[in-house]
């Protein structure tokens, strides 16, 4: 390497040139299993914001009805549930008008399933980017769990209107929805950190996901109240972290029952384990995304 | 440290799994059968064949240096850029990048058709690593460079492909990196825009940026780089002054299949086994003088009978300008059929091209203007014109007849 031809224009910055911090990047075959390199996500936070903005802009530009979909989708689900479960099956709803009862649960569920669907398939949808540009791949699931929050916020306004219509009093307790939706977001992220990399390799995930989400929905107290679940199954049932989120929503909206702190703790622990494991798995798989996608 | 190192690579290697086309098992069920281990190892099971796209590449690039990466298709050029730009991780070795790096492996990656030019400018800027404030500051200059005008607020799906590329490149050109990795991206757009791109690269060079440049365009390599790294089957076979490296590359690329040609038939129909470029004295040569005839001897071998073959010799300048084509069919030579081995000799008209480096490409079409059955590089030659020493004087030169009339003004004569 000693006979490198150095071009004459390799002008060294003179002493007057202000000292500039030169970023140094080391490229190595593999990092430690627990080296999650979350700092890079922070350094690329502007791109994260831009990707979120892009998805929101595209979402509302491509659909003729635009933001109306955010309302139509959950309202339609609630209408179906009200007719089938509320009317025909005479499903108990803890004394709350069935449409509001269902809507308070459909709201976080719609957010959750949309977040999982988007972020589990996001890497493949952005495959062009993954193949041609470097950026921390974590931005893809991260941005995709944030985007559906817009739909959620619009639908939430509808919930408030429905509460007024059905005479359910508003209260400050409803602020609890903010930490609750954050928990749903963490769970969606955790799930897609596992599913996203698998979907890069096996496109089956895209086709399997709707079924899994459908089953998950019926395993959550959305069309029926938690009180209907037999006591001996309660513990197993509450292993589903969405149970805590949905019951929390109903508590915040209708002030029925008290939050089950035991079940919430179990949910939190499950989410944390899934999230951390997901991060390790994602970082492990991330190295080969560009080669396989 | 007498000089600052921008990029240093030590034993970089990248191994890929070779998958036969169509046999890739994308089904989760198959993978589960093979055990969950295959998911963890990225789909690799012990039976799959592997190959090294890049192997044991070591080099150092000083700050401000422009280095060209050359090699035939599949030699590992793009893999090297992908590893250095962190798109993919190396299997072995390590590299250190000192400085802000911009990588342009493709112009316009990440553009979204539904978004306007303005929205895409911010999106693409962020993708390339610019902050929002930086894009906002350079926004007017970007729109100016792209010559996009009021179209900036129109969705890019309505852009012509030229506008699209111009805007994308304009954003990239304002990245201001310390180190720039370029992969063939200068080969897009029309001629005027290519000039603009070359000027952009020259400007960066003046600012002291380090440029790593992959190209098939020997002209841009020659004009931009003092040094080349020549990759062959994933390995660095030469690293040094451009002239020497290009010569090696040219010698190696003789008789290789032309990059544009993809044989669609399952079996090759024919191949050029040898090609010689001879000057008027019959000597094999790499230099032809202006006005001399070039003789090309084409030795071929067919694997099936080829009906009415049209042998063609295309002459390409080093900047990929296709200068002329000789065709046996167009010249009225009737060859009913060839089968087996043979030799065909072409003697060109006196060469009228200007001084430059040219590539002679042989291609054969079946049944006159039918399907191409073979396309290979015959070789390279320099043309030597006594006066016109570069392509700045055009593609070809022919002598004209001149006549001068002078009328000496009387006033001057008297004065």
Query: Which residues of chain A sit in consecutive blocks of at least 5 with pLDDT less than 50?
Result: 1-19
Distance between the termini of chain A: 36 Å
Main beta sheet of chain A: strand number and arrangement?
none
CATH first level of the largest domain in chain B: Alpha Beta
The appropriate CATH architecture of the largest domain in chain B is 3-Layer(aba) Sandwich
By secondary-structure content and strand pairing, the structural class of chain A works out as mainly alpha
Q: How many helix segments of chain A?
A: 13
Explain what you see.
- The complex is a heterodimer of chains A (293) and B (415).
- With 293 residues, chain A is mainly α.
- In chain A, 66% of the residues lie in helices and 1% in strands.
- Chain A is built from 13 helices and one strand.
- Chain A has helices at residues 38-43, 45-62, 68-88, 98-125, 127-132, 139-146, 148-166, 177-201, 204-218, 234-237, 241-254, 261-286, 289-292, and one strand spanning 24-27.
- Chain A is globular, with a radius of gyration of 24 Å.
- The two termini of chain A are 36 Å apart.
- The model of chain A is unreliable at 1-19 (pLDDT under 50).
- Chain B is built from ten helices and 19 strands.
- With 415 residues, chain B is of the alpha/beta class.
- Chain B has helices at 28-33, 37-40, 77-84, 117-127, 132-146, 161-173, 191-206, 218-224, 242-253, 410-414; strands spanning 5-18, 49-62, 66-70, 92-98, 101-104, 179-183, 210-214, 227-232, 235-241, 270-278, 287-289, 295-302, 306-307, 310-317, 322-327, 337-338, 341-347, 356-365, 372-384.
- The model of chain B is unreliable at 20-24 and 42-46 (pLDDT under 50).
- Chain B starts with a strand and ends with a helix.
- Chain B folds into two domains: 5-20 and 47-251, Rossmann fold, CATH 3.40.50; 270-384, Coagulation Factor XIII, Chain A, domain 1 (Distorted Sandwich).
- In chain B, α7 links the parallel β6 (179-183) and β7 (210-214).
- In chain B, the strands form five sheets. Chain B has a six-stranded mixed β-sheet, with helices on both faces. In chain B, strands 11-19-18-14-15 form a five-stranded mixed β-sheet, with helices on one face.
- At the A-B interface, β1, α2, α5, α9 and α13 of A face α1, β2, α3, β4 and α4 of B.
């Amino acid at each position: 390497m000693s006979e490198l031809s150095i071009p004459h224009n390799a002008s060294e910055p003179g002493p007057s040139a202000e000292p500039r911090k030169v970023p140094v990047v080391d490229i190595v075959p593999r990092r430690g299993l627990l080296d999650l390199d979350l700092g890079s996500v922070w350094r690329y936070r502007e791109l994260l914001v831009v990707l979120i903005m892009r998805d929101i802009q595209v979402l509302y530009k491509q659909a003729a009805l635009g933001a109306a979909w955010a309302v139509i989708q959950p309202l339609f689900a609630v209408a179906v549930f009200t007719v089938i479960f509320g009317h025909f099956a005479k499903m108990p709803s803890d004394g709350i008008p069935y449409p509001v009862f269902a809507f308070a649960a459909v709201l976080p569920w719609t957010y959750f399933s949309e977040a999982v669907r988007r972020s589990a398939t996001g890497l493949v949808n952005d495959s062009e980017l993954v193949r041609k540009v470097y950026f921390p791949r974590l931005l893809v699931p991260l941005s995709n769990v944030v985007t559906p929050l817009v739909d959620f916020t619009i639908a939430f306004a509808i919930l408030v209107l429905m509460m007024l219509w059905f005479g359910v009093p508003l209260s400050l307790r409803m602020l609890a929805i903010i930490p609750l939706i954050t928990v749903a977001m963490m769970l969606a992220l955790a799930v897609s950190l596992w599913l996203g990399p698998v979907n890069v390799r096996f496109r089956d995930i895209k086709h399997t996901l709707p079924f899994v989400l459908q089953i998950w929905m019926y395993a959550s107290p959305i069309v029926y109240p938690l009180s209907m679940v037999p006591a001996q199954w309660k513990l197993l049932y509450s292993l589903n972290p969405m149970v805590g989120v949905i019951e929390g929503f109903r508590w915040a909206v209708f002030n029925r029952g008290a939050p089950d702190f035991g079940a919430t703790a179990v949910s939190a622990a499950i989410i944390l384990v899934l999230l951390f494991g997901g991060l390790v798995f994602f970082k492990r798989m991330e190295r080969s995304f560009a080669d396989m996608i | 440290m007498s000089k600052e190192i921008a990029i240093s690579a030590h034993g970089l290697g990248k191994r890929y799994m070779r998958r036969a086309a169509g046999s890739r098992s994308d089904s989760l069920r198959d993978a589960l059968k093979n055990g969950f281990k295959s998911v963890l190892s990225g789909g690799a099971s012990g039976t799959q064949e592997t190959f090294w796209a890049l192997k044991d590449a070591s080099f150092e690039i000083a700050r401000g240096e422009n280095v060209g990466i050359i090699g035939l298709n599949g030699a590992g050029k793009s893999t090297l850029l992908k590893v250095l730009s962190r798109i993919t991780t190396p299997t072995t070795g390590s590299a250190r990048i000192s400085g802000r790096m911009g990588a342009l492996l493709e112009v316009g990656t990440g553009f979204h058709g539904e978004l306007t030019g303005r929205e895409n400018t911010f999106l693409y800027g962020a993708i390339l690593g610019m902050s929002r404030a930086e894009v906002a500051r350079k926004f007017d200059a970007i729109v100016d460079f792209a010559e996009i005008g009021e179209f900036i607020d129109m969705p890019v799906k309505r852009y012509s492909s030229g506008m699209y590329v111009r805007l994308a490149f304009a954003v990239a050109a304002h990245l201001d990196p310390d180190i720039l990795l370029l992969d063939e991206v200068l080969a897009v757009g029309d001629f005027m825009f290519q000039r603009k791109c070359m000027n952009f690269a020259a400007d960066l060079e003046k600012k002291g940026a380090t440029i790593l440049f992959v190209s098939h365009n020997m002209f841009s390599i020659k004009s931009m780089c003092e040094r080349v790294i020549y990759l062959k089957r994933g390995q660095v076979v030469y690293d040094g002054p451009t002239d020497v490296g290009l010569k090696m590359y040219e010698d190696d690329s003789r008789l290789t299949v032309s990059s544009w040609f993809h044989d669609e038939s399952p079996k090759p129909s024919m191949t050029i086994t040898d090609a010689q470029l001879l000057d008027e004295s019959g000597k094999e040569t790499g230099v032809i003088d202006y006005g001399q005839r070039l003789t090309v001897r084409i030795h071929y071998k067919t694997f099936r009978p080829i009906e009415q073959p049209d042998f063609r010799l295309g002459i390409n300048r080093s900047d990929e300008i296709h200068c002329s084509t000789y065709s046996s069919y167009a010249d009225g030579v009737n060859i009913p059929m060839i089968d087996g081995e043979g030799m065909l000799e072409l003697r060109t008209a006196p060469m009228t091209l200007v001084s430059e480096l040219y590539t002679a490409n042989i291609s054969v079409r079946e049944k006159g203007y039918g399907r191409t059955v073979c396309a290979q590089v015959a070789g390279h030659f320099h043309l030597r014109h006594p006066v016109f020493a570069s392509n700045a004087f055009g593609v070809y030169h022919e002598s004209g007849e001149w006549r001068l009339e002078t009328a000496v003004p009387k006033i001057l004569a008297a004065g």
